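My convention is simple: the sequence line spells out the residues, with the fold written below as integer tokens. I include a record here:
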Amino acid sequence: MIHDNIQEAINHFRFEGRYVDGEEMNAGNINNSYHLIFRDQDGRRFQYTLQHINHYVFKNPRGVMNNISLVTEHLRRSLEREGEDVRQHVLVIVPTRQGDALYEDNQGGFWRAFEFVDQATAYDAVEKPEHFYEAGRAFGEFQRRLCDFPAERLYDTIPDFHNTPKRYQVFEQAVQADRVGRAAQVREEIEFFRARKPMMSGIVERLDSGEIPLRVTHNDTKINNVLIDDATDRAICVIDLDTVMPGSSLYDFGDAIRYGASTAAEDEADLSKIALDMDRFKDFTRGFLSETNGILSRKELELLPLGVKVITCELAMRFLTDYLDGDRYFKVNSDQHNLIRTRAQMRLLMDVESKEEEMRRFIGALMD
């Protein structure tokens, strides 16, 4: 269903031609998105994506859009220096009639628009091995083109998003509070995370010490945030930049592997189905290192398997935290859903741990 205020919002952007059609897009779980079609007097067709930003999730929409404007401008300049087609390889913001990146309606809602990237698909799952290689290459290129951007200039869209020590503190607080009386039933799971507390601090401590650098990170590196060209099966554009903020390259690599190289969904109840698919790991890693080898530091590349462990453990712990807290954060379809998620990610982490040395050897061979 089209948002009641969509026509009013449309009138405030510099769209080419006359609006002729629009439909709500199913992609994304946070913002309301619409695919708009315009035509000019000569019959030429123009396509745009209009989004109504979820103000509950993103408390500072102007900060989010400032980040996106800075990053896309930097990417655009980098692409232009290499003679690439900017409109196919980076999101293009459509300004309001006042020249702003955001329009605020009279209900306090925030809207933004981008040029629509046509004849490309965002896949929700890995359908072809080459797609996951291309996703790795796309997120690696994202790192490469932004390696000279000062991450400190960006606003923290979600403060402490991957501050795992703070996540651990919140977890322990949930254990102690035991709001809904579930802690006694999950003692084994609680001890699982306590045993991994030192590992979970590994990235934050290295960032704080300067052993690894602060970088611009995407922070939602699922394969469906890469557009794959329908004709060539090549990745052409990284999308969904709402969570772009300062962080570590290890987070982006780790989350991509956690999501895309798992053999099962993150809420699979049958633990026997869950493992790290090393073929997929290798596909993504080849693509990622094809762009970042020589750009990321040797230490960052060596620590990529740590990123997979930390991100998988962090998410599993967040699921258990929410379970102990009465399922107040994540959407659930039963009172056991968060516990199922916890155990699924724990199982995946254990397989990741068993294959850590294999991952290290593979990455080391690509680095040589």
Q: What stands out?
A: Residues 39 and 45 are 5 Å apart (CA to CA). The chain has a mean pLDDT of 94. DSSP finds 14 helices and ten strands in the chain.
